Each structure stands twice: as C-alpha cells, then as structure tokens.
Amino acid sequence: MSKFTFSKDFVNSLQAVWQMIGSDIMSSYEEAGEEPENEACVEACIDADRMPSFDGMRGQAAQVEFRTRVAAVGYNVALLEAVRSFPFPLV
Fold first, then answer.
1. Which of the residues 13, 14, 22, 31 could staple to 62 if both were Cys, CB 3.0 to 4.6 A apart?
2. Alpha carbons 49 and 60: distance in angstroms, whole number
3. What's the whole-model pTM score?
4. Using 50, 70 and 90 to split pLDDT, how confident is the model at 2?
C-alpha cells in the first residue's frame, strides 16, 4: 500500500499561510508558556478557511483537496497525512 501525500500546491499553500500567521501562533505559545506542537501548527494553517483567505485560488484548491481527503479517511487521518506531506516541521 502506498503512502498518501498531499499535492505540492497543498504544501505550498500551507507554507504560505504559515508565513502569514506563524509568528502570531508562536507568540501565543510563548505567552501561554507552552511548547509549540507541529501538528497543532499545521492544523492552525488549515483551520478557519485560512488557506483560501491567505493564498487565494491555490488556497481554495488546497482546501478542497483537504476536505476531499477528510471525506475519504476522516479528519484525524487527513491531518496526520498533511503533517507528513510537509517536507519539514513548521516548528
């Protein structure tokens, strides 16, 4: 069985969103005295329609790709696949 990987456009969109919101996310962790978790940071990029909001049409396509995968395998599995699709940890 092959390992599922999200598209390069999905990964690039997620990275674009992280560039826009990453410093705010990291500040929130610092203020709370907590260590950031990579999975939670990836989820923050995907959540709340941030991909289409911050990355336009590519983000819209990435969001559709994620939602399609969620429909096929469930949210938690799709999120873990999104984390694994990124070539390096966000944090």
1. 13
2. 8
3. 0.90
4. low
